[in-house]
Specification:
EC number: 1.1.1.49
Family: Belongs to the glucose-6-phosphate dehydrogenase family.
Number of strands: 17
Number of helices: 16
Organism: Roseibium porphyridii
Catalytic activity: D-glucose 6-phosphate + NADP(+) = 6-phospho-D-glucono-1,5-lactone + NADPH + H(+)
InterPro entries: G6P_DH, G6P_DH_AS, G6P_DH_C, G6P_DH_NAD-bd, NAD(P)-bd_dom_sf
Shape: globular
Bound molecules: 6-O-phosphono-beta-D-glucopyranose
Distance between the termini: 45 Å
Strand order of the largest sheet: 16-15-14-13-7-12-11-8-17
């Protein structure tokens, strides 16, 4: 369905995000007929480009990142692109942006800040100063939103001085992933799960976001962030919220965000006393990945002093009636054995066996939601092994693979999210108080680590992280899912 007519301004248009994600996502939405005929995408950066130079640049990006690029659609899309040179530091060029925007005062205006967070404030102030922000405007902020609670507040304050909260779209691209949205469908469009979705029936939950790549060309940024800020504060806590929240009243943005906020507030604090027991930090050393030998993080960075973690495992607990006593084991890292993101919901064992089988034969049910790759849902159940040999039991997966079930292309998260910005739908975006609550839980962990004399534990690239991560779950008599 076509969205309302709009002008989308992309700051940082020559950057990596625009190149790899935003331009391809916009192309697909256009090719699928979702963009009104006159909609424009106004790209801005510091380079001295003409409109046509930028179109050439965009064409190259699309050729690199879009499979099955179609010539007619490509032409139509490139014609929507405009370029304005803006130097954010000196504020030169904002007037030119104003001239372009004022050609169409009546359409939706969205400003996408695909730049570092240090520029969010300056851009917003300038947009306010030149008078292009109206009631039909929205702004999109990319993570990281600050590096702790205090800086997040300052950042939200400056942007909030120009845009109202319902005009601010804080992107967490995990929320736009098809499989993550499917988590809500699974929980709330089926009667089967909800009665069992609590401490009485669930033993524990594991959330793993493992990457096989290293920090790539982003070591400079990454070293100031680390895995806890880069992945846990946002993506992983958002996943935890979707698994743990109470059923919202509706899919209305505030209903969903109110419930997520309650989960974040109910997280038991981890402080200097408990950090050693509940958290594990790691940093990769040289090793091997699918492509062959790879250097360690410190070599890549060219700095032997860095204590930045490239891996983190945590035991989180949610102190409320539904989840009391159910650990949520969270884990993420770079250069791990495999690229896999999944949520594992481990149910309790059956209370009593009527079968004459060896101990341990009957394994407890497990629901695995695979976010990527091989997106799908798997329920592990016990069945009778077919054949006349008596009641032999076996665990089998009831499997649903998105690729097999649906022959359609799996759209990238950004496609859905950018269109939601135009529609003004904030359900899949983070509200300010959620960001604050997430930092409130993360900050004491960062403080405990900063105060600790210990460096992150080394792990060999291509493995599942430091052995302390295995010990974290084994201490509780459990194992990470890949070890089962
Ligand atoms: C980003 C992080 O937010 O998410 C990156 O900054 C990470 O470090 C990326 O690689 C992972 O996203 P995806 O969609 O590839 O799982």
């Amino acid at each position: 369905i076509e969205v309302e007519d709009f002008d989308l301004v992309v700051f940082g248009a020559s950057g990596d995000l625009a190149h790899r994600k935003l331009l391809p996502a916009l192309y697909h939405r256009d090719a699928d007929g979702q963009m009104p005929e006159k909609a424009r995408i106004i790209c801005s950066a510091r380079r001295d480009y003409t409109h046509d130079d930028f179109r050439d640049y965009a064409e190259k990006a699309l050729k690199e990142h879009v499979k099955d690029l179609d010539d007619a659609h490509l032409k139509q899309f490139l014609a929507r692109l405009y370029y304005v040179k803006i130097d954010i530091a000196t504020a030169k060029g904002f007037e030119d942006l104003k001239t372009i925007l004022e050609e169409r005062p009546e359409v939706i205006r969205a400003f996408y800040l695909a730049v570092g967070p240090d520029l969010f404030g300056t851009i917003s102030e300038n947009l306010g100063r030149i008078g292009v922000v109206n009631s039909n405007s929205r702004v999109v902020m990319e993570k990281p939103i600050g590096k702790d609670g205090t800086s997040a507040k300052a950042l939200n304050d400056t942007v909030g001085a120009v845009f109202a909260e319902d005009q601010i779209f804080r992107i967490d691209h995990y929320l736009g992933k098809e499989t993550v949205q499917n988590l809500m469908a699974l929980r709330f469009a089926n009667a089967l799960f909800e009665p069992l979705w609590n401490a009485a029936h669930i033993d524990h939950v594991q959330i793993t976001v493992a990457e096989s790549l290293g920090t790539g060309g982003r070591a400079g940024y990454y070293d100031t962030a680390g895995a806890l800020r880069d992945m846990v504060q946002n993506h992983i806590l958002q996943l935890l919220c979707l698994v743990a929240m109470e059923p919202p009243e509706s899919m209305n943005a505030d209903s969903v965000r109110d419930e997520k906020l309650k989960v974040l507030k109910a997280l038991s604090p981890i402080d200097a006393q408990s950090a050693d027991r509940l958290t594990v930090r790691g940093q990769y050393r040289a090793g091997a990945s699918a492509g062959g030998a790879v250097p360690g993080y410190l070599e890549e960075l060219g700095n032997n002093e860095s204590r930045t973690e490239t891996f983190v495992a945590l035991k989180a607990e949610i102190a409320n009636w539904r989840w009391a006593g159910v650990p949520f084991y969270l884990r993420t890292g770079k250069r791990l054995a495999q690229r896999v993101s999944e949520i594992v919901v481990q149910f309790q064992p059956i209370p009593h066996s009527i079968f004459d089988v060896e101990a341990g034969t009957i394994t407890a049910n497990r629901l695995i939601i695979r976010l990527q790759p091989d997106e799908g849902v798997q329920m592990q159940v016990m069945i009778k092994d077919p054949g006349p040999g008596g009641m032999r039991l076996r665990q089998v997966p009831l499997d649903m693979s998105f690729a097999e079930a649906f022959k359609v292309r799996n759209p990238d998260a950004y496609e859905r999210l950018i269109m939601d910005v135009i529609r003004g739908n904030q359900t899949l975006f983070m509200r300010r108080d959620e960001v604050d609550a997430a930092w409130a839980w993360i900050d004491p962990i960062l403080a405990a680590w900063a105060a600790s004399k210990e460096a992150p534990k080394g792990y060999t690239a291509g493995t599942w992280g430091p052995s302390a991560s295995i010990a974290l779950v084994e201490r509780d008599g459990r194992t990470w899912s890949e070890d089962d």
